[in-house]
Design a protein that fits this description.
- This protein is an all-beta fold.
- It folds into two domains: 106 residues, Sandwich (Immunoglobulin-like); 311 residues, 7 Propeller (Methylamine Dehydrogenase, Chain H), CATH 2.130.10.10.
Length: 428
């Protein structure tokens, strides 16, 4: 489309916008109540397990931000509390919060169930709540949400339960776990505020660390192998983050979060941890682990009940325990929500000459944080049969811009392009 008026012609080429009033904070998923997640960092896949009956696993492609398929389990295989990935064998292991506890094996390439095993060797091997996988040595370990917590061992090679450790009554309701692969140790956190160190080589409890009365309900954790530390967050009002020295197996520092309640999920990336709250509305908290300080937070007025989290590439992701479940993506560099969409394109750019100035207006784009205005002036021939070689005039957050003194003498032809910009890049 070419616009001509009083010695100026403006060709409107790209990224034109439709008005919208609210920027989306998340992506709506096709299933309800995501509770668990596993990530294939090499192939860019996430697997999301639901806290539903029957349980379902969503296969999600991270680079394109889209669902690729889903696996619906049997009615007895409900409430997927933990998902573990063996990236070498291409297998997923889903632990269920059921009675008896079950583990379902499926392909990570295609949503195809392969097998299922029930833990019924003892009457109380119920309610899997957390787990870690040692896929290099062929074992998975699961913790139970029971009085006197239990740790279950599964041989991945023959898909057979091989052992159960019964913990003391004071160490009950296991809520989180993290694997120190370098040293062959798994650290389980419990509702009663006890950290249990499991030696995977011997399948025995190495030692336990009881924390204070204010450091209980340990529902999320991470292990930092590089710095020999583990971190446990409390699902209390207010929440706290405890740092455990893995060499001495003692708690060293505690970060109190007086304005943050009910931390349910945590993901670590380098020197930072990102905590999600199981609250309405939800909140994401960024913590510097090196000096144990609260850096910043994002309030989510339209989102709630953050229930699972993971890191991939430049982003951290949080899934909600809602119907339907939603996926929130946060840019780690800017600590801002980054929607799973590039800026949109619709024909709504308007150009008007005002003396030597050119006034541009356009509608707001729901996926854009700002707009880049490009211009090519003094074009001597009409037509769009050559490449557009513009200069970036400005980047603005408003939906209008005045290009001052843009019009020269004569009947110049000026090309303009307005492109939406967000954390993913620019629109076409």
């Amino acid at each position: 489309m070419v616009f001509r008026k009083a010695g100026i012609a403006a060709a409107l080429l790209a990224s034109l916008f439709t008005a919208s009033s609210a920027k989306p904070q998340s992506m709506e998923l096709s299933e309800d109540r995501v509770r668990s997640v596993a990530v294939d960092q090499i192939n860019g896949k996430a697997y999301l397990g639901t806290n539903t009956s029957p349980g379902k696993i969503i296969y999600f492609d991270l680079p394109t931000c889209r669902e690729e398929g889903k696996l619906t389990l049997d009615p007895s295989e409900s409430y997927i509390s933990t998902l573990l990935l063996d990236p070498i064998a291409g297998k997923l292991y889903a632990g269920t919060d059921t009675e008896p506890a079950r583990v379902v094996r499926s392909s990570s390439v295609n949503p195809i169930k392969e097998d299922s095993v029930a833990y019924n060797r003892f009457a109380s091997e119920n309610f899997i709540s957390t787990g870690s996988i040692d896929y290099r040595n062929g074992f998975a370990y699961f913790g139970t949400w029971t009085t006197g917590g239990k740790i279950l061992c599964l041989d991945l090679n023959n898909f057979t339960p091989t052992g159960t450790i019964r913990l003391v009554v004071q160490n009950e309701f296991l809520g989180s776990s993290g694997f120190d692969e370098l040293n062959g140790k798994i650290y389980f956190g419990s509702e009663s505020g006890v950290v249990t160190k499991l030696d995977t080589e011997t399948f025995t409890v190495d030692s336990t660390l009881p924390l204070s009365v204010w450091q209980t309900v340990l529902m999320s954790s991470s292990v930092d192998e590089t710095n020999n530390r583990a971190y446990f967050a409390t699902m209390l009002n207010p929440s706290r983050l405890t740092e455990v020295n893995l060499q001495t197996f003692q708690d060293e520092r505690v970060l109190e979060l007086p304005t943050d309640n009910n931390v349910r999920t945590m993901v670590q990336d380098g020197d930072f941890a990102y905590l999600g709250t199981y609250t309405t509305p939800g909140r994401i908290i960024k913590v510097n682990l090196r000096d144990m300080t609260r850096v910043d937070s994002i309030d989510l007025p339209n989102e709630e009940l953050l229930n699972a989290s993971f890191s991939y590439g430049n982003f951290v992701y949080f899934a909600t325990d809602t119907s339907p479940s939603r996926l929130i993506r946060v840019d780690k560099n800017t600590f801002r929500i980054c929607p799973c969409a590039y800026p949109s394109s619709t024909p709504d750019l308007r150009v008007r000459r005002n003396g030597r100035d050119v006034e541009l207006t356009w509608g707001a784009d729901v996926n854009s944080d700002s707009y880049g205005i490009d211009r090519e002036a003094n074009v001597t021939r009409v037509g769009l049969d050559r490449a557009f070689t513009p200069t970036r005039v400005s980047t603005v957050t408003a939906t209008g811009y005045t290009d001052v003194n843009a019009v020269g003498d004569g009947n110049d032809l000026i090309f303009y392009s307005v492109r939406g910009v967000n954390c993913n890049g620019e629109g076409n």
